[in-house]
Design a protein that fits this description.
Elements lengths: L15 E6 L2 E6 L2 H10 L5 H9 L5 H14 L6 H6 L5 H17 L11
Antiparallel strand pairs: 1-2
Helix pairs in contact: 1-3, 3-5
Length: 119
């Protein structure tokens, strides 16, 4: 399965979060590179368009896999999207959704009805 490369606690000031994935506490972060990966995956023209897509609150399972995968890789974890799809998270789909929501909030701030003005 995936190997964790980064150890330590998440720093919210850097946009990092922690999540329990496959029984191991992992750090996730949507770095600039991870956000570029998501722009491409979601065919978003820019960060504002990406944030607006996430602010809609509607996500497919594959969207959650992409966001969690990008966040894991952004924090230095060796995790493919296939690894994320096979991973277990406490709470099942609701647990995955909570990880995505926490990661997007740490990255963009409150997403409901607002988008970053200067990412």
């Amino acid at each position: 399965m995936a190997e964790r490369l980064r150890y330590g606690r998440a720093n919210r000031h850097r946009g990092e979060i922690e999540a329990l994935i496959d029984g191991e506490r992992r750090v996730l972060c949507l770095t600039l590179g991870a956000l570029a990966e998501l722009e491409t995956a979601f065919a978003a023209d820019d960060l504002t368009a990406l944030a607006e897509r996430f602010a809609s609150g509607r996500m497919k399972a594959v969207d959650m896999i992409r966001v969690i995968g990008a966040g894991l890789r952004g924090a230095g974890n060796v995790f493919s999207d296939e690894d994320v799809a096979a991973a277990t998270v406490e709470g099942g789909i609701a647990g995955h959704a909570a990880i995505v929501a926490d990661l997007l909030t740490a990255t963009f701030g409150g997403l409901k009805g607002e988008t970053p003005t200067d990412p």
